[in-house]
Specification:
Layout lengths: L2 H30 L27 E13 L4 E12 L3 E7 L4 E2 L4 E3 L5 E2 L1 E7 L4 E10 L8 E10 L6 E9 L2 E9 L5 H4 L11 E9 L3 E4 L3 E6 L4 E6 L12 E4 L2 E6 L5 E6 L8 H17 L9 E6 L6 E2 L4 E5 L12 H20 L9
InterPro entries: Aminopeptidase_N-like_N, Aminopeptidase_N-like_N_sf, M1_APN-typ, Peptidase_M1, Peptidase_M1_aminopeptidases, Peptidase_M1_dom, Peptidase_M4/M1_CTD_sf
Protein name: Glutamyl aminopeptidase
Pfam families: Peptidase_M1 (PF01433), Peptidase_M1_N (PF17900)
Length: about 375
């Protein structure tokens, strides 16, 4: 078996093991996370509707997400608000989408294409399929053309107890413990970060905003569009509108890292984000990223479709790496290389993982998966 085949087999084995550990962590998380109060959308075993099915319906589809998230790092929790533009191809009274552990904190709001508000009769969680169900007080006619319904939900979640969804981990810098919060959504963990239609064929565009302490910076799939100071302690980072993508590729991070950057031959910034004390160990990754990126663009005769490509080395990352479009997340040992301390086998592994993830950037995100 060649090295490439061995690497792929190892990654598959790691992901299988990680999924088993994830189930254990999620079960433990139920023990350590306090109950939300009030419970706006209480759990129900009602199976009178199509939400009892494992798969989402084909006639309800997201078009666009406006997502705003505010992590409260020292409290290990976050709040958020999402407005989803929804297309409906046949009349219905019910909308349902995925949610897990995150809780709705305000009765959802639904507006017609005309802007008129739709009364909400009932909202509940169907935990068997990890859905939140919103039942309208009237029938919702099918949309046509560019018309959409706007579904707005406010929510809250925890940053501790798991290594999936939106979570916080720590590292030490000059003897001081610091935090980073980041996401890991493959295969079906976006629903833990925010309410969404969490199946890979339900692609949509995203406008993502992060409200975070002024001492932190934020990253996402797309470049920063603007930064706003909100008060003496907080600022808001808003990112450019994304290309259509699946929920498992949505990524954001709040950090206090430094960076190493190279420019591709086509003029795209290729940036590695690492702990300040690890900056020198990112130089090799930056050089390999540029070499492989330039080679792939020339070999496949393709122009990378996003304005930038970021990579970030995250302490306590569950899998080897994750090919989020425009923001690849890595376990530190799979991105960083110290020639003074690491063996040549580590150097080879870093180069192999980088190349593997860059292939995903060239051909992976545009693939049309129906389900995992």
């Amino acid at each position: 078996m060649g090295y490439k085949a061995q690497y792929k087999q190892k990654i598959r084995s790691q992901k299988t093991q990680f999924m088993e550990v994830r189930l254990l962590l999620d079960n433990l998380n139920l023990l350590i996370v306090p109950n939300w109060d009030p419970d706006i959308c209480p759990a129900s075993e009602d199976e009178s509707g199509e939400w009892k099915n494992f798969r989402l319906p084909e006639y309800i589809n997201p078009v666009h997400y406006d997502l705003e998230v505010k992590p409260l790092m020292e409290e290990d929790r976050y709040t958020g608000r999402v407005t989803i533009s929804v297309n409906i191809s046949k009349p219905t009274r019910d909308l349902w989408l995925h949610i897990r552990e995150t809780r709705i904190t305000k009765l959802p709001e639904l507006r017609k294409p005309s802007g008129e508000q739709v009364p909400i009769r009932r909202c509940f969680e169907y935990k068997k399929q990890e859905y939140v169900v919103i039942q309208a007080g009237e029938e919702l006619p099918a949309t046509s053309g560019d018309s959409v319904y706007l579904l707005t939900m406010e929510f809250a979640g925890w940053l501790n107890g798991s290594l999936v969804g939106f979570y916080r981990t720590t590292y030490t810098e000059n003897g001081q413990v610091k935090s980073i919060a980041a996401t890991d959504h493959e295969p079906t963990d976006a629903r833990k970060s925010f309410p969404c239609f969490d199946e890979p064929n339900k692609k949509a565009t995203y406008n993502i905003s992060i409200i975070h302490p002024k001492t932190y910076s934020a990253l996402s799939n797309m470049p920063v569009e603007k930064e706003e100071t909100l008060d003496t302690n907080w600022k808001k980072t808003t990112f450019m509108k994304s290309v259509p993508m699946s929920t498992y590729l949505v990524c954001f991070a709040v950090h206090q890292f430094t960076s190493v950057q190279r420019m591709s031959n086509s003029g795209k910034p290729l940036t590695i984000y690492v702990q300040p004390e690890q900056k020198q160990t990112a130089e090799y990754a930056a050089n390999i990223t540029k070499a492989v990126f330039d080679y792939f663009e020339e070999y496949f005769a393709l122009n990378y479709s996003l304005p930038k490509l970021d990579k970030i080395a995250i302490p306590d990352f569950g899998t080897g790496a994750m090919e989020n479009w425009g923001l690849i997340t890595y376990r530190e040992t799979n991105l960083l290389y110290d020639p003074n301390e690491s063996a040549s086998s580590n150097q080879q592994r870093v180069a192999s993982v980088i190349a593997h993830e860059l292939v995903h950037q060239v051909e992976g995100p545009e693939a049309n998966l129906l389900a995992f």
